[in-house]
Amino acid sequence: MIRLYSFAVILSFAFSTVSAQQILPFDFELAPTTADFVNFEGGEGSVIANPDPSGINTSDQVGQIIRFPGEIWAGSKIILSDYIDLSVLGGIRMKVRVPLPNTVVKLKLEGLAVGELDAMTTVTDEWETLVWDFTGLQSGVFNEVVFMFDFGNFGDGSQWSTFQFDDVEMFDATYGLAQIDLPINFEGDAVNYHTTSFAGNFSSLASDPVMPNNSVVEVLKTWQSLNYSGTTISTPAGLANPVPFTTEQTVITTRVFTQAAGIPVRFKAEESSNPANSVETQVLTTVGGEWETLTFDLSQQVDGTQPINLNFNYDLISIFFDFGQPGSVLGNQTFYFDDVNLEGWVADLSEVPNVRFLLYPTVLSSGQELQIIRPEGGGYAWSLYDAQGRCVHDIQNGMGNSVLLPTLQAGVYHAVVATSNEVFKQSLIIR
Asked: How far apart are CA 276 and CA 32, in angstroms?
């Protein structure tokens, strides 16, 4: 989840007046200038000649922040002359050049409220573009952009604490794609499957470690992560529709891949407009080195947290791996998750953008009939694979709207339905 606070001065920043009309985008060619940086806790910002005018950034002038001895959150900020409008363009991107890969760059928006997101660099002494997706945050409350390079470490004023950046601009981080909604399988190119990482967690779309053709989310919990680091399964805007919890349907199922049994995994649902309205539950993994399906029963909340309230619009959902343990205990860890859905629930196809097939139910018994919802009809080929990628059932010339499953062992299976012009994949749970 993105951290959004009512306005309070959390860090002790120095104040200065704005020397020019600062607006986004800016590129340091004419503005901002060195005088426009507001430094804090050991960070020192300035405008310098581009030390490496090559690759994606050949401009003459760039911004630079050197971190001298101070606090782990040292940095600098630029005060804008007006509040940011996030209603149309919710993403911010900029070019950065840092001395080491895996450097955490925190971008923070301040003003009448505070929101922050982290990104991680991937190269050494080369320009690359990093993005932060603030889509869904309130417009008209942020007029300060705060830059914190190598967040979580102390600076020493050396070349290892020297960072350049340039071309700070807003963009449409949704890329025109549909807003994410249940059921979530991270497949296809019509939905914005962007996730939001927080507290030292970094998540991204990746290939399944067991079935490379399957798209999943990879979660890197770094050695700097806090004990509540996690991943929100959307942008800050949340899901397109609230999770349709009912008195009979309170279980979220999610497939996870971890390296060990006994890892605590927490699941949280909250209102994007009021995060104080939330519910969370927690289970332990039972296997390591393979996929398993976890069931999170939100009617069984964690002690000391709120019970589920069916009057709330829970449209923001998050998952926390190894909850309660800071990253410093075990160092960097990698987890995966996929196939997030409300147990036994299927959406109307009209509410699932660009989906041409839907299999229902997603949780069923061995030998049960599986419904194939396909609004345009037509023939199809059907294949069912187990967790090891072995085909356990197939139909080459299917025409009906249902398939009778054979006798199968309990576990997670992957269905592939193909027509002459498209392929649809969905995971099924056999109990």
From this structure: 38
Structure tokens at 89: 């363009």
Domain with CATH 2.60.40.1930 in the chain: 356-430
Q: To 5 degrees, how large is the angle CA 425–CA 271–CA 279?
A: 85
What CATH class has 178-342? mainly beta
Per-residue confidence at 269, pLDDT binned at 50, 70, 90?
A: very high
Amino acid at 393: H
Q: Tell me how many helices (H) and strands (E) the chain has.
A: 1, 31
The CATH fold assigned to 3-171 is: Jelly Rolls (2.60.120)
Neighbours of 330 (CB within 10 A): 13
Quote the CA–CA distance of 129 and 122 in Å, as a whole number.
10
Q: What does the alpha-carbon distance between residue 113 and residue 319 come to, in Å, rounded to a whole number?
A: 25
Put simply, whether the predicted model's pTM sits higher than 0.85 gets the answer no
Tell the burial category of 299 from Cβ atoms under 10 Å away from its Cβ (0-12, 13-18, 19+).
middle
**3-class SS at 68?**
coil
Q: Quick count: other Cβ atoms within 10 Å of Cβ 60?
A: 10
Integer Cα distance of 87 and 85 in angstroms: 6
Residue pair 180/241 in contact (Cβ under 8 Å)? The answer is: no
What is the DSSP track for 251-317? Answer: EEEEEEEESSTT-EEEEEEEETTEEEEEEEEEEE---SSEEEEEEEETTSPPTTSPPP-TTS---EE
Q: Where are the alpha helices (DSSP H) in 153-222?
A: none
What is the C-alpha separation between 154 and 68, in angstroms, rounded?
Answer: 8
Q: Is 210 strand, coil or helix?
A: coil
Would you give the DSSP letter of residue 373? E
pLDDT at 13: 38
% of the chain beyond a pLDDT of 70:
89
* Of 114, 107, 148, nearest in space to 130 by CA: 107
Give the Cα separation of 236 and 195 in Å (integer): 9
HEC secondary structure over 318-352:
EEEECCCCCHHHHCCEEEEEEEEEECCCCCCHHHC
Q: Residue 395 burial (CB < 10 Å; 0-12/13-18/19+)?
A: middle
Q: Please state, rounded to an integer, the average pLDDT across all residues of the chain.
A: 87
Domain 356-430 superfamily per CATH: Macroglobulin (MG2) domain (2.60.40.1930)
Sheet of 215-221, strand order = 201-207, 215-221, 333-342, 251-258, 290-297
Where along the chain do the CATH 2.60.120.260 domains lie?
A: 3-171, 178-342
